[in-house]
Amino acid sequence: TVINKIEKNKQYYIQYSPESFSDTELFFSKKICFYFSYLCYINKVNSILNLPITVENCLSNYYLNSLNYIKKNIFNSILSVHVHNDMNCSTSTSILSILSNVKRVEGTLFGNGERAGNTSLLILASNYYNLGINPKINF
């Protein structure tokens, strides 16, 4: 398997991203994410579980409910989000995800990127700065 071929060193991570997470039945997503995190855990491989909104067709709170459900059913994986901006909610969804203990946000500079664009990391950082939280970025 791929996991057996990866050096078991803290510098390496394997990332899994269920491409249609936001459009897949939650129970099925949970099973897939659970098995990924479990295999990484028992093989002592560092893992990142990226939960994308590939087509933003729901509000932030609905996505957060799904994210929190998955979070309760995984082993030791770092959680990450990749939020598209079809409904202009990517910044709020990313902020709420971080507040929900997500450790990584995948995004773009100025929101330019795939299709409708992704979360703008600069907008996200400036929102945190305005909330009194130092994003530790030099502008």
UniProtKB/TrEMBL annotation:
GO terms for molecular function: catalytic activity. Residues 1-139 form the Pyruvate carboxyltransferase domain. PANTHER family: 2-ISOPROPYLMALATE SYNTHASE, PTHR46911. It comes from Cacopsylla melanoneura. This is 2-isopropylmalate synthase. It holds the Pfam family HMGL-like. Transmembrane segments: none annotated.
